[in-house]
Amino acid sequence: MKTLKDVISLKFKTSESEGVIFHGEGQQGDYITLELKKAKLVLNLNLGINQLGSIFGHTSVTTGSLLDDHHWHSIVIERHGRNINLTLDRHMQHFRTNGEFDYLDLDYEITFGGMPFSGKPSSNSRKNFKGCMESINYNGNNITDLAKRKKLEPSNVGNLSFSCVEPHTVPVFFNATSYLEVPGRPSQDLFSVSFLFRTWNPNGLLLFSNFADDLGNVEIDINEGKVSVHINVTQVKKNRIDISS
Protein backbone atom coordinates (compact mmCIF):
# COMPACT_ATOMS: atom_id res chain seq x y z
CA MET A 1 0.00 0.00 0.00
CA LYS A 2 1.08 3.56 -0.69
CA THR A 3 -1.11 5.98 1.23
CA LEU A 4 -1.24 9.73 1.71
CA LYS A 5 -3.89 9.46 4.43
CA ASP A 6 -4.31 6.89 7.20
CA VAL A 7 -6.79 6.46 10.01
CA ILE A 8 -6.04 3.72 12.55
CA SER A 9 -8.11 3.19 15.69
CA LEU A 10 -8.41 0.53 18.37
CA LYS A 11 -9.01 -0.09 22.06
CA PHE A 12 -6.76 -2.13 24.32
CA LYS A 13 -6.31 -3.19 27.91
CA THR A 14 -3.36 -4.97 29.46
CA SER A 15 -1.48 -5.50 32.68
CA GLU A 16 1.86 -5.64 30.82
CA SER A 17 4.07 -2.56 30.54
CA GLU A 18 5.76 -3.59 27.26
CA GLY A 19 4.36 -4.86 23.96
CA VAL A 20 3.95 -4.10 20.25
CA ILE A 21 0.37 -3.09 19.44
CA PHE A 22 0.83 -2.94 15.66
CA HIS A 23 3.65 -2.76 13.13
CA GLY A 24 4.10 -2.27 9.39
CA GLU A 25 7.17 -1.64 7.24
CA GLY A 26 8.25 -1.30 3.62
CA GLN A 27 11.24 -1.72 1.33
CA GLN A 28 11.81 2.04 1.01
CA GLY A 29 12.67 2.40 4.70
CA ASP A 30 9.09 3.26 5.67
CA TYR A 31 7.69 1.91 8.92
CA ILE A 32 5.03 2.57 11.54
CA THR A 33 5.11 0.94 14.97
CA LEU A 34 2.81 1.55 17.91
CA GLU A 35 3.95 -0.03 21.15
CA LEU A 36 3.91 0.15 24.92
CA LYS A 37 7.19 1.00 26.62
CA LYS A 38 7.37 1.35 30.39
CA ALA A 39 3.54 1.54 30.37
CA LYS A 40 3.62 4.56 28.02
CA LEU A 41 2.41 4.66 24.41
CA VAL A 42 5.14 5.18 21.80
CA LEU A 43 4.50 5.82 18.09
CA ASN A 44 7.52 5.38 15.78
CA LEU A 45 7.08 6.52 12.19
CA ASN A 46 9.26 6.96 9.12
CA LEU A 47 7.87 7.95 5.72
CA GLY A 48 11.00 6.89 3.84
CA ILE A 49 14.75 7.23 3.55
CA ASN A 50 16.19 10.42 2.11
CA GLN A 51 19.69 10.84 0.68
CA LEU A 52 21.10 11.80 4.05
CA GLY A 53 19.94 8.56 5.66
CA SER A 54 16.87 7.24 7.40
CA ILE A 55 17.63 8.76 10.79
CA PHE A 56 16.35 12.15 9.59
CA GLY A 57 12.98 10.65 8.69
CA HIS A 58 12.54 8.84 11.98
CA THR A 59 9.91 10.37 14.28
CA SER A 60 9.04 9.12 17.74
CA VAL A 61 6.24 10.45 19.96
CA THR A 62 5.39 9.29 23.49
CA THR A 63 2.08 9.87 25.27
CA GLY A 64 0.20 8.63 28.32
CA SER A 65 1.41 6.76 31.40
CA LEU A 66 0.38 3.86 33.63
CA LEU A 67 -1.39 2.24 30.67
CA ASP A 68 -0.85 -1.25 32.16
CA ASP A 69 -3.77 -0.76 34.58
CA HIS A 70 -5.99 -3.37 32.84
CA HIS A 71 -8.54 -0.72 31.91
CA TRP A 72 -9.71 0.01 28.36
CA HIS A 73 -7.77 2.74 26.54
CA SER A 74 -8.70 4.09 23.11
CA ILE A 75 -6.23 5.15 20.40
CA VAL A 76 -6.85 7.04 17.17
CA ILE A 77 -4.04 7.86 14.72
CA GLU A 78 -4.96 10.25 11.90
CA ARG A 79 -2.30 11.01 9.29
CA HIS A 80 -2.44 13.36 6.33
CA GLY A 81 0.98 13.46 4.74
CA ARG A 82 3.43 14.52 7.44
CA ASN A 83 0.73 15.86 9.76
CA ILE A 84 -0.28 13.46 12.52
CA ASN A 85 -2.98 13.60 15.19
CA LEU A 86 -2.41 11.02 17.92
CA THR A 87 -5.36 10.71 20.31
CA LEU A 88 -5.17 8.63 23.49
CA ASP A 89 -8.30 8.55 25.65
CA ARG A 90 -9.59 11.79 24.05
CA HIS A 91 -6.30 13.62 24.65
CA MET A 92 -5.00 14.70 21.22
CA GLN A 93 -1.39 15.43 20.36
CA HIS A 94 -0.51 17.03 17.00
CA PHE A 95 2.92 16.76 15.38
CA ARG A 96 4.71 16.70 12.03
CA THR A 97 7.01 13.90 10.98
CA ASN A 98 10.65 14.46 10.15
CA GLY A 99 12.00 13.92 6.63
CA GLU A 100 10.70 15.08 3.27
CA PHE A 101 8.13 12.47 2.19
CA ASP A 102 4.33 12.42 2.47
CA TYR A 103 3.45 8.84 1.48
CA LEU A 104 3.62 5.74 3.67
CA ASP A 105 4.76 2.71 1.63
CA LEU A 106 4.03 -0.57 3.42
CA ASP A 107 5.07 -3.46 1.18
CA TYR A 108 4.79 -6.20 3.80
CA GLU A 109 2.00 -7.38 6.09
CA ILE A 110 0.68 -5.19 8.87
CA THR A 111 0.70 -7.10 12.15
CA PHE A 112 -1.42 -6.44 15.20
CA GLY A 113 -0.33 -7.68 18.62
CA GLY A 114 3.33 -8.06 17.71
CA MET A 115 5.87 -7.98 14.91
CA PRO A 116 7.37 -10.86 12.92
CA PHE A 117 10.98 -11.73 13.63
CA SER A 118 12.97 -10.14 10.81
CA GLY A 119 16.50 -10.76 12.04
CA LYS A 120 16.91 -7.05 12.70
CA PRO A 121 18.18 -6.09 16.16
CA SER A 122 15.03 -3.99 16.70
CA SER A 123 12.66 -6.92 16.22
CA ASN A 124 13.99 -9.42 18.74
CA SER A 125 14.23 -6.89 21.56
CA ARG A 126 10.53 -6.04 21.38
CA LYS A 127 7.86 -7.99 23.20
CA ASN A 128 4.59 -9.00 21.60
CA PHE A 129 1.44 -7.51 23.09
CA LYS A 130 -0.25 -9.53 25.83
CA GLY A 131 -3.78 -8.43 26.63
CA CYS A 132 -7.05 -7.59 24.91
CA MET A 133 -7.86 -5.46 21.86
CA GLU A 134 -11.21 -4.56 20.34
CA SER A 135 -12.62 -2.33 17.59
CA ILE A 136 -9.42 -2.49 15.49
CA ASN A 137 -10.08 -0.35 12.42
CA TYR A 138 -7.45 0.24 9.73
CA ASN A 139 -8.40 2.69 6.97
CA GLY A 140 -12.04 1.68 7.07
CA ASN A 141 -11.41 -2.06 7.48
CA ASN A 142 -12.79 -3.66 10.64
CA ILE A 143 -9.81 -5.91 11.40
CA THR A 144 -11.37 -7.52 14.48
CA ASP A 145 -14.47 -8.59 12.57
CA LEU A 146 -12.45 -9.83 9.57
CA ALA A 147 -10.18 -11.88 11.85
CA LYS A 148 -13.13 -13.41 13.67
CA ARG A 149 -14.81 -14.39 10.39
CA LYS A 150 -11.42 -15.58 9.01
CA LYS A 151 -11.68 -13.18 6.07
CA LEU A 152 -8.08 -11.90 6.26
CA GLU A 153 -5.92 -13.04 3.34
CA PRO A 154 -3.09 -13.71 3.77
CA SER A 155 -3.09 -14.08 7.52
CA ASN A 156 -1.29 -15.90 10.27
CA VAL A 157 -3.65 -15.44 13.14
CA GLY A 158 -1.91 -17.68 15.66
CA ASN A 159 -3.52 -18.61 18.96
CA LEU A 160 -6.22 -15.96 19.34
CA SER A 161 -9.33 -16.19 21.49
CA PHE A 162 -12.25 -13.87 20.85
CA SER A 163 -12.97 -13.20 24.49
CA CYS A 164 -11.17 -11.21 27.16
CA VAL A 165 -10.07 -13.11 30.24
CA GLU A 166 -10.19 -11.09 33.43
CA PRO A 167 -7.23 -11.44 35.80
CA HIS A 168 -7.84 -13.41 39.00
CA THR A 169 -6.74 -10.64 41.34
CA VAL A 170 -8.68 -8.83 44.05
CA PRO A 171 -7.54 -5.23 44.60
CA VAL A 172 -7.74 -3.53 47.98
CA PHE A 173 -8.27 0.23 48.22
CA PHE A 174 -6.82 2.13 51.19
CA ASN A 175 -7.76 5.65 52.17
CA ALA A 176 -5.58 7.81 54.40
CA THR A 177 -6.77 6.13 57.62
CA SER A 178 -7.46 2.49 56.67
CA TYR A 179 -5.05 -0.41 57.01
CA LEU A 180 -5.07 -4.20 56.80
CA GLU A 181 -3.68 -6.21 59.71
CA VAL A 182 -2.84 -9.91 59.33
CA PRO A 183 -1.40 -12.33 61.89
CA GLY A 184 2.35 -12.83 61.96
CA ARG A 185 4.18 -16.15 61.82
CA PRO A 186 6.29 -16.63 64.95
CA SER A 187 9.16 -19.15 65.00
CA GLN A 188 9.80 -18.55 61.28
CA ASP A 189 13.34 -17.64 60.21
CA LEU A 190 12.19 -16.19 56.87
CA PHE A 191 10.27 -12.96 56.35
CA SER A 192 8.93 -12.69 52.79
CA VAL A 193 6.32 -10.34 51.35
CA SER A 194 5.29 -9.29 47.84
CA PHE A 195 2.55 -7.05 46.46
CA LEU A 196 1.67 -4.73 43.61
CA PHE A 197 0.63 -1.16 44.33
CA ARG A 198 -0.36 2.03 42.54
CA THR A 199 -0.80 5.49 43.98
CA TRP A 200 -0.65 9.14 43.01
CA ASN A 201 0.68 10.11 46.45
CA PRO A 202 4.44 10.68 46.80
CA ASN A 203 4.50 9.65 50.48
CA GLY A 204 2.90 6.84 52.46
CA LEU A 205 3.49 3.77 54.60
CA LEU A 206 3.12 0.51 52.63
CA LEU A 207 3.99 -2.09 55.24
CA PHE A 208 5.11 -2.33 58.88
CA SER A 209 5.86 -5.36 61.03
CA ASN A 210 7.51 -5.93 64.40
CA PHE A 211 9.79 -8.94 64.73
CA ALA A 212 9.10 -11.39 67.54
CA ASP A 213 10.95 -11.25 70.86
CA ASP A 214 11.65 -7.51 70.47
CA LEU A 215 14.27 -8.22 67.80
CA GLY A 216 13.33 -5.12 65.77
CA ASN A 217 10.99 -4.24 62.92
CA VAL A 218 10.70 -3.80 59.17
CA GLU A 219 9.06 -0.87 57.39
CA ILE A 220 8.38 -0.25 53.69
CA ASP A 221 7.28 3.22 52.67
CA ILE A 222 7.15 5.72 49.81
CA ASN A 223 9.16 8.86 50.43
CA GLU A 224 9.08 11.59 47.75
CA GLY A 225 8.08 9.02 45.13
CA LYS A 226 10.81 6.51 46.05
CA VAL A 227 10.27 3.16 47.75
CA SER A 228 12.36 2.70 50.89
CA VAL A 229 12.88 -0.37 53.05
CA HIS A 230 14.02 0.13 56.66
CA ILE A 231 15.08 -2.84 58.78
CA ASN A 232 15.81 -2.19 62.46
CA VAL A 233 17.60 -4.95 64.39
CA THR A 234 18.07 -4.45 68.14
CA GLN A 235 20.77 -6.98 68.93
CA VAL A 236 23.58 -6.06 66.53
CA LYS A 237 25.96 -3.07 66.38
CA LYS A 238 24.87 -1.91 62.94
CA ASN A 239 21.25 -1.98 63.91
CA ARG A 240 19.60 -0.25 60.92
CA ILE A 241 19.55 -1.12 57.22
CA ASP A 242 18.07 1.34 54.73
CA ILE A 243 17.43 0.47 51.08
CA SER A 244 15.96 2.99 48.62
CA SER A 245 14.89 2.55 45.01
From TrEMBL:
Pfam families listed in its UniProt record: Laminin_G_2
Residue span(s) of domain Laminin G: 1-164
Record-linked InterPro entries: ConA-like_dom_sf (IPR013320), Laminin_G (IPR001791), Neurexin-related_CASP (IPR050372)
Residues in the signal sequence: none
Protein name in UniProt: CNTP2 protein
Species lineage: Eukaryota, Metazoa, Chordata, Craniata, Vertebrata
